[in-house]
Amino acid sequence: MTAEELMVEFALTRLDHPELDLEDLAALVVRRGGPERVLEFAAENLAERGELRGAPFPTAVEHVLRVVLTLRGPSD
């Protein structure tokens, strides 16, 4: 999944659940992706951090947040 596709999925999830904070939205995106997506996101995040191990789900959520905040740019 590209960063742009992930951002679209995150934005659509945010439209459905405006009351959730960013971390909860990221967790929902990861949960909806299923086990394969959890592993994909976790692997990408661990590679970016230069680490070999990490708990899959929290690491995948961190990846989603990292992508969203990076693409969002600096706050105004």
UniProtKB/TrEMBL annotation:
Q: Which domain of life is it from?
A: Bacteria
Source species: Amycolatopsis pretoriensis
Lineage, opening ranks: Bacteria, Bacillati, Actinomycetota, Actinomycetes, Pseudonocardiales
Q: What is this protein called?
A: Uncharacterized protein
